[in-house]
Write a structure and sequence with these properties.
The chain is mainly alpha-helical. The chain is about 70% helix and about 10% strand. Strands 2-1-3 form a three-stranded antiparallel β-sheet. The chain is rod-shaped, with a radius of gyration of 27 Å.
Length: about 130
């Protein structure tokens, strides 16, 4: 038997921690996604560095006046990888903002529930509904 009561339009249980019990798992999952995107960004940076080093090596060996036949495709790959890294970085920002919002929302629920418990004294004394 769980006692429930309303707190600023939120239905919360008598156990305040049950409302945030899944928070660590959610945060962990979001940061694992961030870590995966970080790995993808690092791969893009590695590809950029390889292509750039190849272009620089050609210039060192042949001089800057000789046209490199691979310059155009390498430049295209470099630009694509920069764009990919930018998109991944923006996705990372979105994931971290989502994690921050989860923490903020769940902490608000905990504060609300704690205030209700302090005001009422205990869930059994609350004038509310008894959930089966």
């Amino acid at each position: 038997m769980v006692w429930r009561f309303y707190c600023t339009d939120l239905l919360i249980s008598a156990d305040p921690t049950s409302t945030v019990a899944n928070l660590p798992a959610e945060i962990t999952h979001l940061y694992e996604e961030v870590q995966a995107k970080d790995t993808q960004i690092q791969e893009a940076r590695t590809m950029i560095a390889q292509r750039d080093n190849s272009l620089q090596k050609f210039i060192k060996l042949n001089g800057s006046l000789v046209q490199n036949p691979k310059e155009e495709p390498y430049s295209k790959v470099i630009l694509e990888q920069y764009e990919r890294a930018q998109i991944l970085q923006e996705e990372k920002i979105g994931l971290v903002e989502k994690a921050a919002a989860l923490v903020r929302d769940d902490s608000s629920k905990l504060v609300c529930c704690t205030r209700s418990l302090i005001t009422v004294g205990s869930p059994r004394q609350a004038v509310g509904r008894q959930a089966a």
